[in-house]
Design brief:
This protein has helices spanning 15-25, 76-79, 99-108; strands at 3-11, 51-55, 66-70, 91-96, 113-118, 124-130, 136-142. Strand 5 and strand 6 form a beta hairpin. It has one domain: 2,3-Dihydroxybiphenyl 1,2-Dioxygenase, domain 1, CATH 3.10.180. The longest helix has 11 residues, at 15-25. It is of the alpha/beta class. Helix content is 17%, strand content 31%. The protein is built from three helices and seven strands, in the order E-H-E-E-H-E-H-E-E-E. Strands 2-3-1-4-7-6-5 form a seven-stranded mixed β-sheet.
Length: 145
Amino acid sequence: MSCTIHHVNLPANDVRASARFYGEIIGMSEGAWVFPPADQVGHISADPARMTIFPASSVSQGENSGLHLIKPEPDFARKNNLDHNPSIGGHVALQVDDLDAVIDRLRAARIAYSLTGTFAIPGMRHLYVYDPSMNLLEINEMIKA
């Protein structure tokens, strides 16, 4: 099974100030978030004051790959029926080619996870899980056509 980093999500209390830093100081190029169809999006804000993206140079991992900046929302998990809150504390997203195999291993190890299905990135389903050090991970899989 292969695994790559799809994105890194950093919390930003002031998304626009952070975006200026990454753009003007670091030299990254801000992009536009690509949402899936409206019926597949949970409670996620499209407001650039709450969320933005600095795309990766390669599009081989699908849309929305790169650096994500998101304003923390204490009730994000509750609003989206999740046990894990990806808007607080940041997370790394790993892209795998077989999410069901990961789910099987999580279940066998009795590790709690939040499965979102297609949620915020078109053509991709995800789950959230804590590693043994309590780092939040998002694990993604491109939906096979």
